[in-house]
Backbone:
């Protein structure tokens, strides 16, 4: 699995106490957009950076290709410390890192092929090689027939695929995706995420995904960093972060991605409808599946009815929760809940006040 | 004077106007584009952001632009004499026109560049493009349509400036209309010149609109 290879490989981007402080406007206070971040991004992985807007994730990713310069600490890309380089020496570094943007940022004055050719012109490729490469890239993203069209004639998803083809043109080892799917509808989002996954798997490109959508992390990221007010508050395997979120912000993101936990209002209604003992039981790889739940209940002679919840995939592994009404002898229910606690987490909501 | 006598004079005046306007469009257009790019690039936060250079350019444009041209002509006198060797005649007048046109067009260029999505510039930077390459391959092509319209607007302004060429003995259509028409109480002559100027402006505007539309056809 690519997650495993990602874990085994060395780091390709390293933040070493990196900070970016913007001076305040007028008498306003300075803004610590990125605050002493230390982080490793491993070669070959899809790394997610999630946070609310204004958390500093866009600035963080721009430190990697030095569109923003650090004001403290350093960023090391492929063994090169960026802090020591001047603007002219940074240009080749940037050319070796692809970037896609939320608003696509295509040149309206150029055709699709012209846009994809742009970084090749910057890199000084001769025309013949350029044309061959553009054809190859448009084939990879499935837009061969759109080569001569201007971006204004494309849909959002097509524009982003052009953006990805352009970002890959010079065979970069790193691809930065800044909210690459945030302007797209859910179906197109899926297409673009699939494409990013292919870029990672087939071309071996390390992908750094910035997003405020936990769904994006859930579907493609191997590891994830959670940002809040310029700091990385949590970092780890996407699956671990999902199943055992350590920080409040993370818990909120998890809840938005998986609407499987009953809110207090939902719980209220469930209690009105169901008189039995209500519990929410985590379902993940550790707990196996709902089969474990069913077996445990049967062993204790308790009837379980699923009344809420859902199971989905995180990093291609099952993950979610089920809210179940338990009916049976109170002592049996008690011991069944205890048995479940041995294999997974259980939220005991008790029973309706009669 | 009869039209037999006037017609050659009218042609001569048209030739003088053409000389003044074309040179000013070339020189003022080129220098104005450069100055406008300078204003855009040095604006703090932009590619070559430099608070000091931007302030100098910005103040220079703001000082020159609002001065009425007829006063500007006189004020520029010493510089005109130093460069051209005289403060009167068509060369001296054209020099002043180039100067003013540069500053007028600079502001137009800057305003059109400001409307470019900064994200596109950022994308070019992310691909390793140098500032000069970004000017050449992103800023100018992306803003081409409004730049053409701005240049058309400049043409009308320059034609307007050329009308007072008679003040420095530069001749031109404006001078012809005043000397041969207004001062002779010959309203027909004035009217003819006005019609000619309106037709020229219409033709150029039509051409400019057409080119801008072509540039926008994407």
Residues:
């Amino acid at each position: 699995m690519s997650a495993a290879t990602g874990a085994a490989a060395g780091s390709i981007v390293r933040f070493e106490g990196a900070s970016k402080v913007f001076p305040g406007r007028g008498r306003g206070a300075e803004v610590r957009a990125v605050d002493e971040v230390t982080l490793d991004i491993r070669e070959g992985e899809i790394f997610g950076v999630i946070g609310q807007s204004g958390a500093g994730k866009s600035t963080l990713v721009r430190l990697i290709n030095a569109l923003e310069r650090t004001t403290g600490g350093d960023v090391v890309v492929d063994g090169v410390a960026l802090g020591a380089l001047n603007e002219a020496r940074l240009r080749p570094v940037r050319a070796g890192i692809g970037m896609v943007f939320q608003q696509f940022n295509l040149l309206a004055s150029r055709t699709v092929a012209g846009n994809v050719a742009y970084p090749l012109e910057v890199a000084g490729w001769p025309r013949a090689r350029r044309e061959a490469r553009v054809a190859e890239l448009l084939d990879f993203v499935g837009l061969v027939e759109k080569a001569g069209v201007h971006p204004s004639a494309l849909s959002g998803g097509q524009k982003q695929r052009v953006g990805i083809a352009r970002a890959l043109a010079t065979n970069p080892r790193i691809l930065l995706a800044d909210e690459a799917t945030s302007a797209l509808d859910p179906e197109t989002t899926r297409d673009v995420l699939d494409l990013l996954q292919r870029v990672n798997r087939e071309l071996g490109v390390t992908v750094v995904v910035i997003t405020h959508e936990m769904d994006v992390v859930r579907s493609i990221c191997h590891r994830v960093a959670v940002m809040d007010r310029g700091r990385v508050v949590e970092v780890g395997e996407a699956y671990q972060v999902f199943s055992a979120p350590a920080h409040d912000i993370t818990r909120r993101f998890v809840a938005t991605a998986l609407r499987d936990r009953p809110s207090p209002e939902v719980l209220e209604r469930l209690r009105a409808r169901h008189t039995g003992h209500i519990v929410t039981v985590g379902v993940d790889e550790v707990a196996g599946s709902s089969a474990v739940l069913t077996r445990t209940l049967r062993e204790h002679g308790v009837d379980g009815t699923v009344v809420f919840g859902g199971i989905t995939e995180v990093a291609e592994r099952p993950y979610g929760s089920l809210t179940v009404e338990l009916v049976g002898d109170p002592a049996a229910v008690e011991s069944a809940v205890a048995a479940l606690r041995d294999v997974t987490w259980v939220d005991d909501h008790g029973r309706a006040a009669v | 004077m009869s039209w037999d006598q006037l017609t050659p004079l009218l042609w001569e005046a048209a030739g003088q106007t053409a000389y003044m306007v074309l040179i000013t469009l070339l020189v003022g257009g080129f220098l104005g584009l450069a100055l406008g790019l300078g204003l855009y690039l040095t604006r703090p936060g932009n590619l070559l952001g430099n608070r000091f250079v931007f302030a100098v350019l910005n103040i220079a444009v703001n000082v020159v632009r609002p001065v009425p041209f007829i006063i500007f002509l006189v004020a520029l006198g010493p510089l005109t004499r130093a460069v051209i060797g005289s403060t009167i005649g068509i060369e001296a007048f054209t020099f002043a026109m180039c100067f003013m046109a540069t500053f007028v067009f600079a502001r137009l260029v800057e305003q059109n560049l400001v409307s470019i999505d900064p994200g596109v510039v950022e994308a070019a930077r992310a691909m390793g493009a140098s500032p000069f390459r970004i000017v050449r391959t992103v800023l100018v092509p992306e803003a081409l349509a409004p730049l053409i319209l701005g240049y058309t607007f400049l043409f009308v302004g320059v034609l307007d400036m050329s009308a007072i060429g008679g003040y420095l003995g530069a001749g031109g259509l404006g001078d012809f209309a005043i000397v041969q028409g207004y001062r002779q109480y010959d309203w027909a002559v004035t009217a003819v010149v006005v019609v000619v100027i309106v037709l020229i402006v219409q033709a150029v505007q039509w051409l400019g609109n057409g080119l801008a539309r072509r540039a926008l056809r994407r």
In short: The CA atoms of residues 160 and 174 of chain B lie 9 Å apart.
